Amino acid sequence: MISLKKEETNEIDQEEEEKRYLLDLMKLQNEALKRIYKNTIDNEKNINPKGR
Questions:
Q1: Residue spans of beta strands (DSSP E) within 1-52
Q2: Quick one: DSSP state of residue 41?
């Protein structure tokens, strides 16, 4: 009984660790996409200024 509970706990801990890792990865990807978008907008503004 004890070893079965320990295995279940280990599986749950591993799943939680994987979820945290994936969430951190998604946050990093989101930040990278924000920077890419901002740089794209900034470059378009530099190429096509409003005054021209």
A1: none
A2: H
Q: Which two tokens stand for residue 39?
A: 């740089």
Task: Please give the Cα distance from 45 to 17 (Å, whole number).
Answer: 42
- Rounded Cα distance, 51 and 45, in Å: 11
| 48 three-state secondary structure | coil
pTM above 0.85, yes or no: no
Residue 51: its H or E element: none
Look up residue 2 and give its two tokens.
């004890």
Rg over CA atoms, the chain: 23
- The string of pLDDT tens digits covering residues 2-23 is 677 778 888 889 999 999 999 9
